[in-house]
């Protein structure tokens, strides 16, 4: 059975607990940029470890890429990919202009939360905070140092950072890259043919993963209940899954029969977690996956041995 390239919340939390027990830090600040990044800490990161964590998104939504081709601002033409994430840009650009000896973690969190939510726009996510929230009263200087050029900067509560005109769902950032390559390549050139191939392979993989997970859900729970189990979200404060070893096992089992989830397919982790919470075991998952995946697209995205799967 293939080894998993994914980082699971339970493993990260265990490492943080060991680091705390070993006294390898006094206090720790953790910025996490990822889709559904809140699920890494939700219901899992306890108080008392002297860790303050913020995440780009809550436990059930995508994060967003920015500085992408075609946006305003857009990256230089030689770059055919999104250069940043809304959340990461927000805290790094805030750190660039403020006096970090006086700005606190909480002040930055509020500004980053506002900017990443992007007002009433559909392009944005909910920045969250976890762990020892009391640490947020500390100045950023304790964790990031400071730029002497900003020492005379007076902190203002209003957000001086202008959000971008639009953003890209992180799940689609690779498609933006391939499409921009295709758009710029000369007609009839090998580069255009290769870019078109990459777009079609990525789309084929996405459809395969989406359809396979939906079919597995229906095979396990029936036509009516299957879709409900796939999309069920636990109440805030509860971890994604009760048995993390079960989640790892079901993911490995699915990939054995259906190919790599890849970065895109990680959007279905909640569905696999819901299978575990409903009592599904490896044998049942293997049978359903074998029935659902009679064919796997022959491309790097679906391969368990390709760099794409990581």
From TrEMBL:
Family matches, as PANTHER family: HEMOGLOBINASE FAMILY MEMBER, LEGUMAIN PROTEIN-RELATED
GO cellular component, one term: vacuole
Legumain prodomain domain location: 197-293
Organism: Trifolium subterraneum (Subterranean clover)
Annotated family: Belongs to the peptidase C13 family.
GO BP term, example: proteolysis involved in protein catabolic process
Protein name: Legumain prodomain domain-containing protein
GO MF, one example: cysteine-type endopeptidase activity
Domain of life: Eukaryota
